[in-house]
Amino acid sequence: VIDLDDAEARRAADPSDMLGAVARLASDARRGYETGLGTVGLPDVDDATGIAFCGMGGSAVSGDVVRAAFRDRLRLPVETVRGPELPEWVGRSTLVVCSSYSGNTAETLACFGEALERGSRVSVITSGGELGARATSNGLGVISVPPELVAPRAAVGHLTFGVAGALEAMGLLPRLGGDVREVEQVLEGLAPRLGPEAPTAANPAKQLARRIDDRVPIAWGGEGVGAVAAARWKTQFNENAKIPAFWSALPELDHNEVVGWSAGSGDRFFLVCLRTSLEPPDVSARFRLSRDIAESAGILAEEVAAAGRGALAQAFSLVLTGDYVSAYLGLLRGFDPTPVEAIDRLKRALAGA
Ligand code: PA5
Fold this sequence. Notes:
Blueprint: H1 7-13, H2 18-23, H3 25-38, E1 50-54, H4 61-69, E2 78-81, E3 94-100, H5 106-118, E4 121-126, H6 129-137, E5 142-144, H7 156-169, H8 177-194, H9 204-212, E6 216-222, H10 225-241, E7 246-250, H11 257-260, E8 269-275, H12 281-296, E9 300-305, H13 311-332, H14 341-352
Parallel strand pairs: 1-2, 1-3, 3-4, 4-5, 6-7, 6-8, 8-9
Helix pairs in contact: 3-7, 3-8, 4-7, 4-10, 8-13, 9-13, 10-13
5-phosphoarabinonic acid is lined by residues 56-59, 100-102, 105, 108, 151-153, 239, 340, 343.
């Protein structure tokens, strides 16, 4: 098993430097925001009635973050569309944001084409690919993301803050400068504690990865940014650590999942409770009670508390922590965190089908 504190061993096991990409989240957020704010050719959305945010996998997370973190400030309903078809309600007065890191994802391209046919206000965020080319040939402004990042999921800072900056530029969100500053401060404060240079004895992310060990992780978050973070932890465990993982949200899980935690059913699982200060008191009480139920089923459990005050900072503090934990867990299990062969194979098979 790799010694996570050995820099040379880390370099050999993480040749694409996923850990370095995680460390850049704070600066990615700032750069993404500035890019979004400065994008020219964004659609006129003065009379828009809703936002459809189209993307898959790592390129869809940003839609969920925007919906959850700004729900008290966005005056329009937002739906994240993870599939090739737009919902019926999307029409001429809808802003359709198409988000694809590569610009070549079939579902997102299908939504893009459909949005143009329906005459929707379309905005694109991508590093290029077919989506970038089609947007440009249709005279649409493109919120650009650097093409050299190690993976779409490592673009979460650019993708989220690029969209947030563009929504501000379109007049759909108030000025976000203070929120972005808080995100930077919080992430810059956390990174040295969680990053690869911090030794295991003083590094909560390395310690958590070691405690999860060969158990199957389950992330719980409170409805809103906590749940969005839980979903991100799950997909990062899948892709960085190459393991099955699950997530669910409170209070919903108290109406179904808790029944599944009965004597012995938790033996192979590890529960991570992602907590924010934004939870209503009811959700805080439910965390305690629900965790007790899961622990009595044999699950090991640990709590991770978000840092910061605002919704965006709390969401991204949890994202940063989960990104590190999942990458460390991948390394401990003997996997290079970056490649996602199953996803690549599926995309190739479907493109040839
Ligand atoms: O993390 C990944 O690699 C995937 O989840 C991708 O984000 C997903 O397949 C969509 O690809 P893209 O982000 O290039 O649109």
